[in-house]
Amino acid sequence: MVHRVVFLGPPGAGKGTQASLIARELGIPHLSTGDILRAAVAAKTPLGLEADGHMRSGGLVPDPLVLEILHERLDQPDAKVGYLLDGFPRNLAQAEALGKFSEVERVVSLEISPDLLVQRLSERRICPKCQSVYNLSTQPPRVTDRCDRDGTALVQRPDDRPEAVTMRLKVYAEQTAPLLEYYRKRRLLREVDASGTPDEVTARIRKVLA
Ligand code: AP5
Ligand code: MG
User: Fold this and answer.
1) Considering 38, 73, 120, 168, which one is annotated as catalytic?
2) Contact 22, 198 (CB under 8 A)
3) In what order do the strands lie in the sheet with 106-111?
4) DSSP E strand boundaries for 4-49
5) 114 near 170, Cβ under 8 Å?
6) Is the pLDDT assigned to residue 1 strictly greater than 90?
7) Nearest ligand (C-alpha, residue 158)
8) Is the pTM of this model over 0.70?
9) Dist. CA 186 → ligand 2 center (Å)
10) Residue of 120, 124, 125, 204 marked catalytic
11) So what's the pLDDT on residue 87?
12) What is the percentage of the chain residues whose pLDDT exceeds 90?
């Protein structure tokens, strides 16, 4: 089994949904830079105050801030056994920085059509407390608008507004998509069809990680 894994994929591909399941199965922590940044924004820490504007517009948070977060997180004891990175790296500079301090074993690219992404993002709701992810049509909560885990009222992410979604898709195409070639050249890339039900996608991911 691999223990140092990266999930790549455009906004809404299902990285977070799949990463939380697969990380549990592999016994490694699920590290989402997006989740860490959203928690910092909610707590109004200096990092959160700086990241907020970049995130709302759909742009990337500057590399030095994100690299600091990642170093700190990977230094924690639970990450000694490995990690499943979701949302990092997002550009070549981040991929090179990661390569300097850890040897990635597998990179899974979640492949999906732009139409499905826009639909998934417009219907997404999240729990602001525990960050659980729902979808109004495909993964609704048991009680309308309430988190299954802690009952908190669900919210829409500010960057799921249409203008920010357009920007995020552009940033992905320009800055993150080149990483597919970067990891393909290093023979680490595995492409997975991310359409279909969450269970179908999980089964495809399990196959490429075996
Ligand atoms: P981040 O939080 O990483 O967002 P993202 O990459 O845009 O991806 P998403 O979280 O939107 O989508 P996802 O692929 O996780 O899909 P999900 O599983 O939720 O980053 C946010 C921002 O933070 C960035 O824009 C940037 O500003 C900043 N940031 C983060 N990392 C950074 C970095 N390294 N460097 C610089 N800046 C950084 O699923 C989406 C929806 O679809 C949900 O509703 C879900 O229920 C549903 N769904 C999932 N799978 C299925 C399925 N198979 N069938 C039907 N519905 C499904
Ligand atoms: Mg996510």
Assistant:
1) 168
2) no
3) 30-32, 83-86, 4-8, 106-111, 189-193
4) 4-8, 30-32
5) no
6) no
7) 1
8) yes
9) 25
10) 124
11) 97
12) 99
Cα–Cα distance for residue pair 114/169, rounded to 1 Å: 9
Q: What is the mean pLDDT of residues 47-69?
A: 96
**pLDDT computed for residue 44 by the predictor:** 96
pLDDT the model gives residue 149: 97
Structure tokens at 202: 């999980």
140 CB-near residues (< 8 Å, 6+ apart): 134
Region 73-81 average pLDDT: 95
Tell me what pLDDT residue 15 has: 97
For ligand 1, atom 39, the nearest C-alpha belongs to 14
106 labelled catalytic: no
Distance of CA 77 from the midpoint of ligand 2 (Å): 23
In this structure, the residue with its CA closest to atom 50 of ligand 1 is: 14
Q: Whose CA is nearest to atom 43 of ligand 1?
A: 124
Give yes or no for a contact between 7 and 85, defined as CB atoms under 8 angstroms apart: yes
Q: What is the mean pLDDT of the chain?
A: 96
